[in-house]
## 1
Amino acid sequence: MSKYLIRRILQAIPLLFGISLISFVMMRIMPGGPLAGYLMNPKVTPADVARLERLWGLDQPIIIQYWRWLISMLRGDWGWSYKTGLPVLEMIFNRLPNTILLMSLSYLISIIVAIPIGIYSALKRYSVFDYIFTIFAFIGVAIPSFWFGIMMLLLFSATLQWLPSAGMMTVGVEFSLIDRIKHLIMPVLVLGFVNMASWSRYMRSSMLETISQDFIRTARAKGLREKVVILKHALRNALIPIVTLLGLSLPAIVGGAIITERVFAWPGIGGLFVNSVYSRDYPILMASLMLTATAVVVGNLLADLAYGYLDPRIKYE
Amino acid sequence: MDLTQNTKKYESLWQITVRQFKKNKLAVIGLTIFMLFVLIAILAPVLAPYDPTEIDLFKVHQAPDREHLLGTDELGRDVLSRLLYGARITLLVGVSSMIFSVLLGTLVGAVGGYYGGLIDNVLMRITDVALSFPSIILLIIIAAYFKTTVFGMIVILGITGWMGIARLIRGEFLSLKQKEYVIASQAIGNRDFRTIFRHILPNATAPLIVAATLRVGYSILFESALSWLGIGIKPPTPTWGNMLSNAQSDIFQAPWLAVWPGVMIFLTVLTINFIGDGLRDALDPKLKNK
């Protein structure tokens, strides 16, 4: 097991290395660098721009720039934002907890909603309930999440005025849990809606496959109560593919978080990322890209490990 | 008894597919609505009551009335006309970028799967790297750097959407290349190009058609998200996505702006998914029994 873990981590290193090199080069060869804004400004002389270029090392060949970035990043120095002058790590870690809060709550709610729906749909196949949630799943996958967010705003903020429209707390009010929850409801639902829809479908088909197998018939033949058969024998087996799915869904959730944070002005990494793309803030961009890629690699690894835990027949060596 | 009646009519593969497809009601409804949207896109100049780019600053943010059935936007442009013309851009981008992705993905997958070894390894590692980023992140970075025209958008969506298709085709090729007819094709001295495209690829079309159909839906969703973020196709060219980009800030003065473009995106993607679902059942009877 530990051997397997070590091998997987060793495999991830070249992958992350390749990702960092590709994104670094991709960013630099594209038109309009971070200094483009200054060139328009009549108060900034070409000499000033050249000095900034030297200071940020942008006058060096790309490969040397990359080497410098790599070395300092490995030492834990992720540089300073070109735009604000603040350390990148500080800016990232100021916002990261907000994004993690949003993402993990939405993950959790999606699982809590999707799994029971999937089980029930499978057990009552072709019932009214099953049809309703089939339609629900089609809607969840086809709806553009940003528009779904805007519609929620239109209904719950603009019309009914039940929920706040932006941010994570009411301005000028002391922190309270109720206030935070009110701000969380819409972003979490919008981010989770796609997953609720698609995971419930996967859960349904996985459950259907499991309950048609021989060991379920055996369990019933032994005279076990239906509840035990479903929840103890079938569920655990049906969950195996779902757990992998949870790990593989991570990139989509990170992507969804960018959109959701934008709709609800949630102060997370997504907004920081979009703004740094606009201003070509390379250090912030590189840091957020590497963070995302690492999260995806770790998500895949966790999915594989969970797979092995749930299904003891699978041995990792 | 008339003997000619006994001659059993054999159906072609195409006929079987059409017959199976017709059984799926949702897919037929989806196809009908989708064709309607295509018709709207083609007939936009005839149907649209106004020029979609005509600015009228005296009629900004007008609520829907008899003159402007869906109201006007922040520059006084007629929303209905923009919606109709938007169908052109959205469908064009969705379908063209799908073709782009399918060509690229098929090429990568076919070459990797057919030759195997080092080539396959390199191609698949590139695919892995490309898949390690959420697509929207890749799209935002690439789109932000280019002046995005309609053609640019098609290319960008095309080069970020091929990975799934490459994996699918590679998987098909890995199993198909062991088949006797492939070995026969190689044995009679056909060039690899011919073996790949004339003998193996036609046998992988069923899953490819389904994946390609669903790809159109994804492309439309991504295009609308990018245009909404302001880094996709820019006004005055109307797309359903960029029609929504100001809708949120104007939600109190002009809530009607936010509704229809979204409904159109949603319905288009929904019908495409219905069609994809129907094609899956029709093309692969094995899957249906599962």
## 2
Amino acid sequence: MVEQGHDESPTGYIVHHLKHLKVGDGFWTFHVDTLLVSGSLAALVAYVLYCGARSGARVSGAPSGLRAVVEWIYEFVDDSVADIYHGNRSFLVALGFSLFTWVVAMNAMDLLPLDVPGTVAGFFGAEFFRAVPTADLNGTVAMALVIFTLIVGYAIRAKGIGGYLHEWISSPFGSNPLLWLPNILLNAIELISKPISLSMRLFGNMYSGEILFMLIALLGMGFAVSIGGIALFIGQVVFGAAWSIFHILIVLLQAYIFMMLPIVYIAMAEEHH
Amino acid sequence: MTINATFIGQIIVFLILLWFIAKFVTPMMAETIGERNRKIADGLAAADKGQKDLAEATNRANEVIREARDRAKQIEDHAARRSNEAIEMAKQTAQTESARIVSAAREDASTETGRAREQLRREFGSLVVSGAARLLEREVDAKTHAQLLDKLAEDITRG
């Protein structure tokens, strides 16, 4: 079960599975596995959605097949955005649409059998491979940073540079010069907490899910090394299946949250205080 | 679990995906779904209009039927009145006709009676004359006693 003859202790197994396939050094390290998986999934999502949007793009008659699925997701996102944001929402729909579909695809990598991606990557000579880009903090922080930029951008677009800066010093306490510092402090915390909570939430959920899959897999390892450990094997199958099924919910729920919160933040940023 | 340059790559991947979706996928979806929604709305509006038209047509038909019924009633009334009038007129005509016939008959009868009476008187006159002649055994000159005889006949008939 553990590839390339590493430390076969439970700790070694887990540590091995938490190592990225990387190139580079120091800050300029790239997690090749994260980039590869998320990039391919982005391409896959884009391709599938494009095919869905193109296929049978007819107006009359009920949509069918892939088209119906894509339309269903699109209308779900569109309705969600329309509830929150009252303005020209075409870009926000595209944002929510790509966030939701991409994050679902990346989260769903957690449902692959734990050792399969690593084993497959092993054929190509990769020593380590983590298949879930959203269980890599870099993956979630990257999306959160884009969303952060959009929040600030939408706020400035709605209020102008002057109005936006004025809000920094005058809200929420008031525009008295004595209150400028508290205002700025609070605004900074409020603004920074958004991308941090956003990225940490998704990362934490997927990371913990991954760890739990590893622990469940360890049951099977116990079976392999101990005599009469058939109960452990059964435990692995039962718990693995149960956690996988439950994880489907987490996969979708976290993707939904990761789609909705940016929209909420952007809608809030446009509000005048 | 460390932040490194990977996130720069992730940002680029995300921006490309976002750009692609915003440029190619959502506009197409919005367009077709919007168009379909418009079509559905149009269809519903058309159905509404059809229903309203139907109601209007039903009303109109009912009105026409009521009008026709009124008209038929009118015609019926008129016909009844006309027939009554005709019957009345025929009755009247018949009455005058019968009166005329009766009076003509009566006139005929009286003429006939007069004629019969005249004849009877004449015959009675000659009978009287021949009777008297036989009684007197001599010929009564009818011409000389015509006046007397006439008077006599007249007395007889009258009296």
